Amino acid sequence: MNSSAIKTDDKGKIAVELTPNEALALTGVEFNDNQHIKASAQRKIRDAFERTFEFQAENR
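The chain above was modelled as a monomer; its predicted structure follows.
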């Protein structure tokens, strides 16, 4: 997996570096020869959220 660069700004936005194929896969384009492209892009985004924002379980 390629390393991803994560940038945050004061408005709480994050930026994740994706390959062109990963970006296309997130828009719905399917790569039949390599189905791991979409999973890789989703993993990068999930990792960026986990490192950037604090998640706390709500009391129910």
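The chain has a mean pLDDT of 81.
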